[in-house]
Protein backbone atom coordinates (compact mmCIF):
# COMPACT_ATOMS: atom_id res chain seq x y z
CA UNK A 1 0.00 0.00 0.00
CA UNK A 2 2.72 2.37 1.05
CA UNK A 3 4.55 1.45 -2.12
CA UNK A 4 1.49 2.14 -4.22
CA UNK A 5 1.05 5.62 -2.69
CA UNK A 6 4.68 6.39 -3.24
CA UNK A 7 4.41 5.43 -6.86
CA UNK A 8 1.29 7.51 -7.39
CA UNK A 9 2.95 10.53 -5.83
CA UNK A 10 6.08 9.94 -7.89
CA UNK A 11 3.99 9.62 -11.03
CA UNK A 12 2.09 12.85 -10.43
CA UNK A 13 5.29 14.65 -9.38
CA UNK A 14 7.14 13.50 -12.43
CA UNK A 15 4.24 14.44 -14.68
CA UNK A 16 4.21 17.93 -13.20
CA UNK A 17 7.97 18.20 -13.32
CA UNK A 18 8.14 16.85 -16.84
CA UNK A 19 5.60 19.49 -17.81
CA UNK A 20 7.57 22.34 -16.25
CA UNK A 21 10.82 20.95 -17.63
CA UNK A 22 9.29 20.62 -21.06
CA UNK A 23 8.27 24.27 -20.80
CA UNK A 24 11.85 25.27 -19.95
CA UNK A 25 13.79 22.82 -22.09
CA UNK A 26 12.24 21.45 -25.25
CA UNK A 27 12.80 17.78 -25.93
CA UNK A 28 15.30 18.56 -28.66
CA UNK A 29 17.46 20.47 -26.14
CA UNK A 30 17.29 17.59 -23.71
CA UNK A 31 18.33 15.22 -26.44
CA UNK A 32 21.19 17.38 -27.62
CA UNK A 33 22.40 17.82 -24.03
CA UNK A 34 22.31 14.05 -23.48
CA UNK A 35 24.10 13.51 -26.80
CA UNK A 36 26.81 15.99 -25.78
CA UNK A 37 27.75 13.87 -22.75
CA UNK A 38 30.31 11.09 -22.63
CA UNK A 39 28.14 8.43 -21.01
CA UNK A 40 29.71 5.33 -19.44
CA UNK A 41 27.81 2.39 -17.98
CA UNK A 42 30.31 0.61 -15.75
CA UNK A 43 28.65 -2.81 -15.63
CA UNK A 44 27.09 -4.75 -18.50
CA UNK A 45 26.98 -8.56 -18.40
CA UNK A 46 27.06 -10.55 -21.61
CA UNK A 47 26.38 -14.18 -22.47
CA UNK A 48 29.34 -16.20 -23.72
CA UNK A 49 27.68 -16.56 -27.13
CA UNK A 50 27.68 -12.76 -27.46
CA UNK A 51 28.72 -11.56 -30.90
CA UNK A 52 27.79 -14.82 -32.60
CA UNK A 53 24.89 -15.31 -35.00
CA UNK A 54 22.74 -16.19 -31.98
CA UNK A 55 23.32 -12.91 -30.13
CA UNK A 56 24.54 -10.36 -32.64
CA UNK A 57 25.07 -6.95 -31.01
CA UNK A 58 24.94 -5.24 -34.42
CA UNK A 59 21.20 -6.02 -34.49
CA UNK A 60 18.56 -5.11 -31.99
CA UNK A 61 17.72 -8.22 -30.01
CA UNK A 62 16.53 -9.40 -26.61
CA UNK A 63 19.70 -8.57 -24.69
CA UNK A 64 19.41 -5.20 -22.92
CA UNK A 65 22.59 -3.87 -24.53
CA UNK A 66 23.48 -3.98 -28.21
CA UNK A 67 24.99 -1.43 -30.57
CA UNK A 68 21.59 -0.36 -31.89
CA UNK A 69 20.24 0.32 -28.40
CA UNK A 70 23.45 2.11 -27.37
CA UNK A 71 23.03 4.37 -30.39
CA UNK A 72 19.33 4.99 -29.75
CA UNK A 73 19.85 5.71 -26.06
CA UNK A 74 22.96 7.85 -26.41
CA UNK A 75 25.02 5.40 -24.37
CA UNK A 76 28.62 5.91 -25.50
CA UNK A 77 30.66 3.44 -23.52
CA UNK A 78 30.23 0.34 -21.41
CA UNK A 79 32.38 -1.96 -19.36
CA UNK A 80 31.47 -5.37 -20.75
CA UNK A 81 31.94 -7.98 -18.08
CA UNK A 82 33.96 -11.15 -17.89
CA UNK A 83 31.93 -12.81 -15.14
CA UNK A 84 32.78 -16.07 -13.43
CA UNK A 85 30.49 -17.58 -10.79
CA UNK A 86 32.01 -18.65 -7.48
CA UNK A 87 32.56 -22.43 -7.24
CA UNK A 88 34.33 -24.68 -4.78
CA UNK A 89 38.01 -23.79 -4.79
CA UNK A 90 39.98 -26.63 -6.33
CA UNK A 91 42.40 -27.01 -9.22
CA UNK A 92 39.83 -28.50 -11.57
CA UNK A 93 37.49 -25.54 -11.07
CA UNK A 94 40.33 -23.00 -11.35
CA UNK A 95 41.16 -24.40 -14.80
CA UNK A 96 37.50 -24.44 -15.91
CA UNK A 97 37.08 -20.88 -14.66
CA UNK A 98 40.15 -19.68 -16.51
CA UNK A 99 38.72 -21.15 -19.72
CA UNK A 100 35.33 -19.53 -19.08
CA UNK A 101 37.00 -16.13 -18.52
CA UNK A 102 38.95 -16.42 -21.77
CA UNK A 103 35.78 -17.37 -23.60
CA UNK A 104 34.14 -14.12 -22.44
CA UNK A 105 37.19 -12.02 -23.33
CA UNK A 106 36.93 -13.56 -26.80
CA UNK A 107 33.23 -12.66 -27.03
CA UNK A 108 34.02 -8.99 -26.29
CA UNK A 109 36.94 -8.95 -28.75
CA UNK A 110 34.67 -10.59 -31.34
CA UNK A 111 32.04 -7.87 -30.88
CA UNK A 112 34.70 -5.21 -31.48
CA UNK A 113 36.37 -7.01 -34.41
CA UNK A 114 33.08 -7.77 -36.17
CA UNK A 115 31.86 -4.19 -35.81
CA UNK A 116 35.02 -2.14 -36.11
CA UNK A 117 33.17 0.62 -37.94
CA UNK A 118 30.91 1.12 -34.90
CA UNK A 119 32.86 0.26 -31.76
CA UNK A 120 36.46 0.03 -30.52
CA UNK A 121 38.15 -1.34 -27.43
CA UNK A 122 39.60 1.26 -25.05
CA UNK A 123 42.70 0.40 -23.04
CA UNK A 124 43.20 3.86 -21.49
CA UNK A 125 41.06 6.81 -20.45
CA UNK A 126 42.53 8.69 -23.41
CA UNK A 127 41.38 5.88 -25.72
CA UNK A 128 37.85 6.36 -24.38
CA UNK A 129 37.89 10.06 -25.25
CA UNK A 130 39.54 9.51 -28.67
CA UNK A 131 37.19 6.72 -29.74
CA UNK A 132 34.22 8.79 -28.61
CA UNK A 133 35.48 11.80 -30.57
CA UNK A 134 35.85 9.59 -33.64
CA UNK A 135 32.12 8.89 -33.38
CA UNK A 136 32.31 5.25 -32.31
CA UNK A 137 31.00 3.41 -29.29
CA UNK A 138 33.54 2.42 -26.65
CA UNK A 139 34.00 -1.06 -25.25
CA UNK A 140 35.85 -1.46 -21.98
CA UNK A 141 36.38 -4.69 -20.07
CA UNK A 142 35.90 -5.48 -16.40
CA UNK A 143 36.32 -8.83 -14.65
CA UNK A 144 33.65 -9.74 -12.10
CA UNK A 145 35.01 -12.01 -9.39
CA UNK A 146 38.68 -12.36 -8.45
CA UNK A 147 38.00 -16.11 -8.61
CA UNK A 148 38.94 -15.68 -12.29
CA UNK A 149 42.61 -15.75 -11.21
CA UNK A 150 42.21 -18.58 -8.69
CA UNK A 151 45.51 -18.38 -6.80
CA UNK A 152 47.60 -17.36 -9.80
CA UNK A 153 48.58 -13.68 -9.61
CA UNK A 154 50.33 -13.88 -12.99
CA UNK A 155 46.90 -14.13 -14.63
CA UNK A 156 46.29 -10.48 -13.73
CA UNK A 157 48.86 -9.39 -16.28
CA UNK A 158 47.43 -11.80 -18.89
CA UNK A 159 43.94 -10.40 -18.35
CA UNK A 160 45.26 -6.83 -18.36
CA UNK A 161 46.82 -7.50 -21.77
CA UNK A 162 43.45 -8.81 -22.97
CA UNK A 163 41.99 -5.43 -21.99
CA UNK A 164 40.66 -5.83 -18.43
CA UNK A 165 40.73 -2.47 -16.66
CA UNK A 166 38.97 -3.41 -13.44
CA UNK A 167 38.44 -6.51 -11.37
CA UNK A 168 35.71 -6.99 -8.77
CA UNK A 169 37.55 -8.71 -5.93
CA UNK A 170 34.72 -11.09 -4.98
CA UNK A 171 31.21 -12.12 -6.08
CA UNK A 172 28.56 -14.06 -4.12
CA UNK A 173 30.64 -16.30 -1.86
CA UNK A 174 34.12 -15.86 -0.43
CA UNK A 175 37.12 -16.57 -2.65
CA UNK A 176 40.89 -16.81 -2.20
CA UNK A 177 41.26 -13.02 -2.30
CA UNK A 178 38.79 -12.05 0.38
CA UNK A 179 35.39 -12.12 2.03
CA UNK A 180 32.20 -11.41 0.12
CA UNK A 181 29.26 -9.24 1.19
CA UNK A 182 27.18 -12.40 0.67
CA UNK A 183 28.77 -15.56 2.06
CA UNK A 184 27.48 -18.58 0.12
CA UNK A 185 25.39 -21.08 2.01
CA UNK A 186 25.72 -23.51 -0.85
CA UNK A 187 29.52 -23.33 -0.65
CA UNK A 188 29.30 -23.60 3.16
CA UNK A 189 31.05 -20.27 3.70
CA UNK A 190 31.63 -19.08 7.25
CA UNK A 191 30.43 -15.56 8.03
CA UNK A 192 34.06 -14.49 8.06
CA UNK A 193 36.80 -16.47 6.37
CA UNK A 194 39.73 -14.10 5.99
CA UNK A 195 38.53 -11.19 8.14
CA UNK A 196 38.53 -9.08 4.96
CA UNK A 197 41.38 -9.47 2.46
CA UNK A 198 43.58 -12.57 2.46
CA UNK A 199 47.35 -12.19 1.96
CA UNK A 200 46.78 -13.21 -1.66
CA UNK A 201 44.09 -10.52 -1.94
CA UNK A 202 46.54 -7.91 -0.66
CA UNK A 203 49.16 -9.06 -3.18
CA UNK A 204 46.52 -8.94 -5.94
CA UNK A 205 45.76 -5.30 -5.15
CA UNK A 206 49.44 -4.41 -5.29
CA UNK A 207 49.75 -6.19 -8.66
CA UNK A 208 46.61 -4.45 -9.97
CA UNK A 209 48.12 -1.10 -8.93
CA UNK A 210 51.34 -2.00 -10.77
CA UNK A 211 49.39 -2.84 -13.93
CA UNK A 212 46.87 0.01 -13.82
CA UNK A 213 43.83 -2.22 -13.31
CA UNK A 214 41.19 -0.57 -11.12
CA UNK A 215 40.25 -2.33 -7.87
CA UNK A 216 36.48 -2.89 -7.69
CA UNK A 217 34.95 -3.30 -4.23
CA UNK A 218 31.35 -4.05 -5.19
CA UNK A 219 30.27 -7.48 -3.87
CA UNK A 220 32.94 -7.44 -1.15
CA UNK A 221 32.35 -7.57 2.60
CA UNK A 222 32.72 -4.21 4.33
CA UNK A 223 35.94 -5.47 5.98
CA UNK A 224 37.40 -6.40 2.57
CA UNK A 225 36.29 -3.08 1.10
CA UNK A 226 37.72 -0.89 3.89
CA UNK A 227 41.04 -2.77 3.78
CA UNK A 228 41.20 -2.50 -0.01
CA UNK A 229 40.56 1.24 0.14
CA UNK A 230 43.34 1.65 2.72
CA UNK A 231 45.77 -0.54 0.81
CA UNK A 232 45.28 0.46 -2.82
CA UNK A 233 47.67 3.14 -4.02
CA UNK A 234 45.17 4.13 -6.72
CA UNK A 235 41.56 5.18 -6.04
CA UNK A 236 39.06 2.30 -6.09
CA UNK A 237 35.65 1.91 -7.69
CA UNK A 238 32.47 0.19 -6.55
CA UNK A 239 31.37 -0.62 -10.10
CA UNK A 240 27.75 -1.54 -9.29
CA UNK A 241 26.34 -0.98 -5.79
CA UNK A 242 23.40 0.74 -4.10
CA UNK A 243 23.30 2.60 -0.79
CA UNK A 244 22.29 1.08 2.53
CA UNK A 245 20.75 4.24 3.99
CA UNK A 246 18.02 4.08 1.34
CA UNK A 247 17.67 0.28 1.36
CA UNK A 248 19.62 -1.88 3.82
CA UNK A 249 20.58 -4.66 1.38
CA UNK A 250 23.84 -6.61 1.92
CA UNK A 251 25.07 -5.56 -1.54
CA UNK A 252 24.76 -1.85 -0.74
CA UNK A 253 27.33 0.57 0.69
CA UNK A 254 26.79 2.28 4.04
CA UNK A 255 27.64 5.93 4.69
CA UNK A 256 30.99 5.08 6.27
CA UNK A 257 31.96 3.23 3.08
CA UNK A 258 30.78 6.13 0.91
CA UNK A 259 32.92 8.52 2.98
CA UNK A 260 35.89 6.15 2.62
CA UNK A 261 35.47 6.23 -1.16
CA UNK A 262 35.36 10.02 -1.03
CA UNK A 263 38.60 10.21 0.99
CA UNK A 264 40.21 7.70 -1.35
CA UNK A 265 39.31 9.74 -4.44
CA UNK A 266 37.34 6.80 -5.87
CA UNK A 267 33.89 6.40 -7.39
CA UNK A 268 30.84 4.34 -6.41
CA UNK A 269 28.74 3.66 -9.50
CA UNK A 270 25.15 3.33 -8.32
CA UNK A 271 23.43 0.31 -9.83
CA UNK A 272 19.92 -0.09 -11.26
CA UNK A 273 19.11 -3.51 -9.74
CA UNK A 274 15.57 -3.46 -8.34
CA UNK A 275 16.37 -5.87 -5.52
CA UNK A 276 19.07 -3.55 -4.13
CA UNK A 277 17.07 -0.34 -4.62
CA UNK A 278 13.84 -1.11 -2.81
CA UNK A 279 12.76 -3.73 -0.31
CA UNK A 280 10.03 -5.84 -1.85
CA UNK A 281 7.77 -8.38 -0.14
CA UNK A 282 8.83 -12.03 0.10
CA UNK A 283 5.58 -13.01 -1.57
CA UNK A 284 6.70 -11.23 -4.74
CA UNK A 285 10.04 -13.07 -4.81
CA UNK A 286 8.25 -16.38 -4.19
CA UNK A 287 6.00 -15.68 -7.18
CA UNK A 288 8.95 -14.71 -9.38
CA UNK A 289 10.84 -17.84 -8.29
CA UNK A 290 7.83 -19.99 -9.18
CA UNK A 291 7.55 -18.41 -12.65
CA UNK A 292 11.29 -18.86 -13.25
CA UNK A 293 11.13 -22.51 -12.29
CA UNK A 294 8.08 -23.09 -14.46
CA UNK A 295 9.64 -21.30 -17.43
CA UNK A 296 12.81 -23.31 -16.89
CA UNK A 297 15.40 -20.72 -15.92
CA UNK A 298 17.64 -20.40 -12.91
CA UNK A 299 18.74 -16.98 -11.81
CA UNK A 300 19.07 -13.74 -13.72
CA UNK A 301 22.43 -14.63 -15.25
CA UNK A 302 20.53 -17.09 -17.44
CA UNK A 303 18.22 -14.56 -19.07
CA UNK A 304 20.46 -13.88 -22.08
CA UNK A 305 20.62 -17.60 -22.79
CA UNK A 306 16.88 -18.11 -22.81
CA UNK A 307 15.35 -18.95 -26.17
CA UNK A 308 13.28 -15.98 -27.38
CA UNK A 309 9.99 -17.84 -26.83
CA UNK A 310 10.73 -18.55 -23.18
CA UNK A 311 12.04 -15.03 -22.67
CA UNK A 312 8.79 -13.55 -23.96
CA UNK A 313 6.76 -16.05 -21.99
CA UNK A 314 8.68 -15.12 -18.84
CA UNK A 315 8.09 -11.40 -19.35
CA UNK A 316 4.44 -11.89 -20.15
CA UNK A 317 3.93 -13.84 -16.94
CA UNK A 318 5.90 -11.28 -14.90
CA UNK A 319 3.61 -8.53 -16.24
CA UNK A 320 0.43 -10.51 -15.58
CA UNK A 321 1.22 -12.19 -12.28
CA UNK A 322 3.77 -9.87 -10.64
CA UNK A 323 3.51 -6.31 -11.94
CA UNK A 324 -0.27 -6.26 -11.53
CA UNK A 325 0.25 -6.70 -7.77
CA UNK A 326 3.68 -5.19 -7.12
CA UNK A 327 4.64 -2.23 -9.33
CA UNK A 328 8.14 -2.33 -10.75
CA UNK A 329 10.95 -0.42 -9.08
CA UNK A 330 11.40 2.69 -11.19
CA UNK A 331 13.92 5.29 -12.23
CA UNK A 332 12.90 7.61 -9.38
CA UNK A 333 13.76 4.86 -6.89
CA UNK A 334 17.10 4.52 -8.70
CA UNK A 335 17.94 8.22 -8.57
CA UNK A 336 16.96 8.30 -4.86
CA UNK A 337 20.09 6.18 -4.31
CA UNK A 338 22.20 8.54 -6.42
CA UNK A 339 20.87 11.52 -4.43
CA UNK A 340 21.87 10.01 -1.11
CA UNK A 341 25.24 8.81 -2.38
CA UNK A 342 26.03 12.30 -3.74
CA UNK A 343 24.99 13.87 -0.43
CA UNK A 344 27.44 11.67 1.51
CA UNK A 345 30.33 11.10 -0.94
CA UNK A 346 30.11 14.27 -3.04
CA UNK A 347 29.38 14.72 -6.74
CA UNK A 348 32.97 13.81 -7.73
CA UNK A 349 32.66 10.30 -6.32
CA UNK A 350 29.46 8.86 -7.78
CA UNK A 351 28.78 7.23 -11.14
CA UNK A 352 26.18 5.23 -13.06
CA UNK A 353 25.83 1.49 -13.73
CA UNK A 354 22.98 -0.63 -15.06
CA UNK A 355 24.03 -4.27 -14.49
CA UNK A 356 22.06 -5.00 -17.66
CA UNK A 357 22.29 -8.67 -18.53
CA UNK A 358 23.03 -9.47 -14.90
CA UNK A 359 19.74 -8.60 -13.20
CA UNK A 360 19.77 -4.82 -13.77
CA UNK A 361 16.99 -2.67 -15.16
CA UNK A 362 14.18 -0.62 -13.64
CA UNK A 363 11.03 0.88 -15.08
CA UNK A 364 12.29 3.83 -17.11
CA UNK A 365 15.81 2.47 -17.57
CA UNK A 366 15.35 -1.12 -18.61
CA UNK A 367 17.72 -1.26 -21.58
CA UNK A 368 20.49 0.85 -23.12
CA UNK A 369 18.01 2.61 -25.46
CA UNK A 370 16.38 4.25 -22.41
CA UNK A 371 19.60 5.78 -21.07
CA UNK A 372 18.48 9.34 -21.77
CA UNK A 373 15.80 8.94 -19.08
CA UNK A 374 18.53 8.92 -16.43
CA UNK A 375 19.75 12.32 -17.66
CA UNK A 376 16.17 13.63 -17.72
CA UNK A 377 15.54 12.50 -14.14
CA UNK A 378 18.82 14.03 -12.92
CA UNK A 379 17.99 17.36 -14.60
CA UNK A 380 14.50 17.22 -13.11
CA UNK A 381 16.05 16.95 -9.67
CA UNK A 382 18.19 20.01 -10.21
CA UNK A 383 21.60 18.53 -11.03
CA UNK A 384 23.64 20.93 -13.15
CA UNK A 385 24.83 19.88 -16.58
CA UNK A 386 28.39 19.80 -15.27
CA UNK A 387 27.42 17.51 -12.42
CA UNK A 388 25.56 15.18 -14.77
CA UNK A 389 28.67 14.94 -16.97
CA UNK A 390 30.66 13.92 -13.88
CA UNK A 391 28.13 11.26 -12.88
CA UNK A 392 27.82 9.81 -16.38
CA UNK A 393 31.52 9.45 -17.15
CA UNK A 394 34.02 12.07 -16.02
CA UNK A 395 34.42 10.64 -12.51
CA UNK A 396 35.07 7.13 -13.82
CA UNK A 397 37.61 8.44 -16.35
CA UNK A 398 39.38 10.37 -13.59
CA UNK A 399 39.84 7.18 -11.54
CA UNK A 400 41.01 5.32 -14.63
CA UNK A 401 43.60 8.05 -15.25
CA UNK A 402 44.73 7.88 -11.62
CA UNK A 403 45.17 4.12 -11.88
CA UNK A 404 47.26 4.66 -15.04
CA UNK A 405 49.41 7.25 -13.24
CA UNK A 406 50.06 4.96 -10.28
CA UNK A 407 51.03 2.18 -12.71
CA UNK A 408 53.41 4.47 -14.59
CA UNK A 409 55.06 5.59 -11.33
CA UNK A 410 55.43 2.01 -10.12
CA UNK A 411 56.97 0.86 -13.38
CA UNK A 412 59.32 3.85 -13.34
CA UNK A 413 60.41 2.99 -9.80
CA UNK A 414 60.97 -0.65 -10.74
CA UNK A 415 63.08 0.35 -13.74
CA UNK A 416 65.25 2.86 -11.86
CA UNK A 417 65.81 0.69 -8.79
ZN1 LIG B 1 27.45 -8.16 -9.77
Number of domains: 2
Q: Just name the CATH architecture of the largest domain.
A: Alpha-Beta Barrel
First-residue to last-residue Cα separation? 66 Å
Determine the mean pLDDT. 91
| CATH-defined fold name of the largest domain | TIM Barrel
Profile the largest sheet.
6 strands, parallel
Associated small molecules: zinc ion
Number-wise, the strands total 9
**CATH-wise, what's the superfamily of the largest domain?**
Metal-dependent hydrolases
| Whole-angstrom Rg | 20 Å
Low-confidence stretches: 1-19
Number of H/I helices = 15
CATH class of the largest domain: Alpha Beta
**Computed structural class:** alpha/beta
Shape: globular
- What level of helicity do the residues show? 40-55%
Q: How would you classify the quaternary structure?
A: single chain
Keywords: Signal
Biased composition (Polar residues): 178-190
Organism: Bowmanella pacifica
Protein name: Peptidase M19
Report on this structure.
The protein contains 15 helices and 9 strands. With 417 residues, the protein is of the alpha/beta class. Strands 1, 2, 3, 4, 5 and 6 form a 6-stranded parallel sheet that branches. It has a 3-stranded parallel sheet with strand order 7-8-9. Strand 4, helix 6 and strand 5 form a beta-alpha-beta unit. It binds zinc ion. Zinc ion binds next to loops. InterPro entries: Metal_Hydrolase, Pept_M19.
